[in-house]
């Protein structure tokens, strides 16, 4: 099975994962692995207590298909740096990373947005929160996009974020992904 890792931490934005994880979990091709820094319980921004299946130290980067980073205020406060080396190793090994909302700030801090097309909540805000960010020339005013192995999304775009991930991992044929998008975004059911 192809492994998709989802990083959880106190204050993660649970709604940003709500559309994509059930669809991935339905597939027999993928295993979703939820992890935290230490493998202990975390509480989402919405108050949901979650027990991750592992800690980041247990991850073998050779087995990672995709790493998903949800948003949360911890990214703005720079409260998480324990996974810095994990991300750098994933990038070095051409593994995919998906970040939404505040998690895009983290990618900017690590310099991972400097050479790829990307988006975030707002360019001005990204530059204010991450003074070392140097990707202005690659910033796209879009809800979500993929360039190379980096997927980024605005915090108001969990459905578009899910679509980018589904396409990247080839979860379903493109026409089925479009039907899924129309259903969840616009309430349009088509056979």
Structure notes:
Pfam families: DJ-1_PfpI. This is Glutamine amidotransferase. The mean pLDDT is 96. Helix content is 31%, strand content 20%. Helix 6 (158-169) runs antiparallel to helix 7 (174-186). The longest helix is centred in the C-terminal third of the chain and has 13 residues, at 174-186. It has a single domain (2-186), classed as Rossmann fold (3-Layer(aba) Sandwich), CATH 3.40.50.880. The protein is of the alpha/beta class. The strands form two sheets. A seven-stranded mixed beta sheet has the order 5-2-1-6-7-9-8, sandwiched between helices. Strands 3-4 form a two-stranded antiparallel sheet. A hairpin with a 5-residue loop joins strand 3 (42-43) and strand 4.
Q: What's the CATH first level?
A: Alpha Beta
Mind telling me the C-alpha Rg? 16 Å
CATH superfamily: Class I glutamine amidotransferase (GATase) domain
CATH architecture: 3-Layer(aba) Sandwich
- Quickly count the domains: 1
- The ordered string of helix (H) and strand (E) elements is EHEEEEEHHEHHEEHH
Low-confidence stretches: none
Number of strands: 9
Outline: globular
Q: Classify the helix fraction into a percent range.
A: 25-40%
Strand line-up of the largest beta sheet: 5-2-1-6-7-9-8
Q: What composes the largest sheet? A: 7 strands, mixed
CATH fold node name: Rossmann fold
Mean pLDDT: 96
Strand content: 15-25%
Structural class: alpha/beta
GO cellular component, one term: cytoplasm
Protein name: Glutamine amidotransferase
InterPro entries: Class_I_gatase-like, DJ-1/PfpI, Prot/Nucl_acid_deglycase
Keywords: Glutamine amidotransferase, Transferase
